[in-house]
Write a structure and sequence with these properties.
This protein is an alpha+beta fold. It has a single domain, classed as 2-Layer Sandwich (Alpha-Beta Plaits), CATH 3.30.70. 26% of the residues lie in helices and 43% in strands. Strands 4-1-3-2-5 form a 5-stranded mixed sheet, with helices on one face. A hairpin with a 5-residue loop joins strand 2 and strand 3.
């Protein structure tokens, strides 16, 4: 059964390849949704898919790419809406 999670990642997560890192992992895990930078310096991730795969994504997001520093993940589980055809990097 599909699940949905909204994640706010704070720390040094902009300008260090964090969105592309998230995109690559989400695609490997066959998740759908998006990743985008926020004006406050955080990164927002909205992902849908198998709950186990979403948990894997969360584990990877805690690590981040080289040169990033993840201070906190704010995680909000939601009901899946199945509204995304794939996973994208948004501006």
């Amino acid at each position: 059964m599909a699940s949905r999670v909204k994640i706010k990642v704070t720390g040094i997560v902009q300008g260090v390849g964090y969105r592309y890192y998230t995109y690559r992992i989400a695609r490997v895990l066959s998740l759908k949704g998006y990743v985008k930078n926020q004006k406050d310096g955080s990164v927002e991730v909205l992902a849908e898919g198998d709950r186990d795969k979403l948990m894997e994504l969360i584990s990877e997001l805690r690590i981040g790419p080289p040169n990033s520093r993840v201070d906190n993940l704010s995680i909000e589980w939601q009901e899946s809406k199945n509204e995304f055809p794939d996973f994208k990097i948004l501006k």
